[in-house]
Design brief:
The structure is a homodimer. Chain A is mainly alpha-helical. Chain A has ten helices and no strands. The first copy, chain A, has two domains: 48 residues, Homeodomain-like (Arc Repressor Mutant, subunit A), CATH 1.10.10.60; 148 residues, Orthogonal Bundle (Tetracycline Repressor, domain 2), CATH 1.10.357. The structure holds a DNA duplex.
Chain lengths: 208, 208
DNA sequence: ACTGTTCTAGAATACTTATTCTATTTTGAG
DNA sequence: CTCAAAATAGAATAAGTATTCTAGAACAGT
């Protein structure tokens, strides 16, 4: 019965992603997204209840894809090598999927949404957040036998914050991270992990 | 002759800074800045040619203040200790001047200005950028005898990017960086600096 | 061919924004 | 006391925004 769709939700999400990755989320206005597709603005609202839902979906999609793969690496064995691999995963991912990385790493949720998550997305966002915390918690426990706030902070620095910092200037410059970035990521991750496993494990080994 | 000023430029800059630090630069609209002061919007334009000039001044002011002190630390002697001190300077500064740090570290120039620097500020912005590059260049040269792109990248990571990464989650959470952050900053800075001075200087020493 | 459903089309609305304009007030020197 | 400069005051303007609304077009099953 229905008429054939000319503007699949998928096309709209693509256009919004492209605009947000290139010029930032604020540039992804309804008018511009529609313009990118040659569509009237009304057609966007036929598919998405609001701009917040649309942009939220864009951000959540990128974040979920990134975190799924990142989490898989971090959950590997043995835990120390898994953590180093997770850190190394960040620049590799940025090289292979620059747009996704720009969305996920250059902007925060607030830049996309302003306010809170719209109803339908709130659950997914919470699940994502929980999965990230749980993944880090488990890796921390396996790595050093504890998962207090301080240990979590150190591990997060090693596998998330420092790799992000190494990659960030190149995201801003819209260029692929050079090879030296991988060396920086590895060196800083090892240094941070040594704070968790280094002296203590040595001491523990000596005691035995 | 003239009438007494009720809204000094200084007061306007303060109000804009406060708003931008608290809710982000996008929240610092002319209407809100005026509201914060109990002033009509026209009075803002009596002092500042445009919103871009006003917000540009806010950002440049914070950036110049931060960089002046940071640069002084980085220029100290001996170069290796100066670099470590510069890295340690970042979390210390964030603790002491949270608002300035939020402006400078949480947002980029583009979030404040959108377009290019307005005329009067362009020269100051260029000078600031040049000073930052020169300071890093000189420190790099003193530290390891070279200042090619790779060495500069490593030094920048050690003293700027990694400390920023360590501090960033706490800026987002609007809390003071905990002590473990200082340890992370030191460890990652040492690890990065070792890539510049470690193996090579040992080799050089062995050759003599 | 008809018909109801789903879509496109794009004008219309309501709101927020930066900016400009036209008074009006204050102030101190002559 | 007067007057011109420099300030406040706040309404008016012009864009740009998300969102809604009404009309028409396409299409599969009958």
């Amino acid at each position: 019965m229905p008429r054939q769709a000319a503007f699949h939700p998928h096309l709209i999400l693509d256009a919004a992603s492209r605009l947000a990755a290139r010029d930032g989320p604020a540039a992804a206005t309804i008018a511009r997204i529609a313009g990118e597709l040659g569509a009237p603005t009304g057609s966007i609202y036929h598919r998405f209840a609001s701009r917040d839902v649309l942009l939220g979906e864009v951000w959540l999609g990128a974040a979920e894809a990134f975190q799924r793969d990142f989490g898989a690496v971090l959950a590997g064995d043995p835990p120390r090598e898994a953590a180093l691999a997770a850190a190394a995963f960040v620049p590799a991912r940025v090289r292979r999927r620059a747009d996704e990385a720009r969305l996920r790493l250059l902007h925060r949720r607030e830049d996309f949404l302003g306010g809170a998550w719209p109803g339908e997305l709130a659950a997914r966002a919470r699940a994502l957040q929980r999965a990230a915390v749980a993944g880090l918690h488990e890796a921390c426990q396996r790595l050093c036998g504890r998962a207090d706030a301080e240990a979590l902070r150190v591990l997060r620095f090693a596998v998330v914050d420092a790799p992000l910092a190494a990659v960030l200037p190149h995201l801003h410059a819209r260029e692929a991270p050079p090879p030296v970035v991988d060396a920086l990521v590895r060196a800083s991750a090892e240094a941070a992990l040594a704070m968790l496993t280094g002296p203590q494990s040595r001491r523990r080994a000596q005691r035995r």
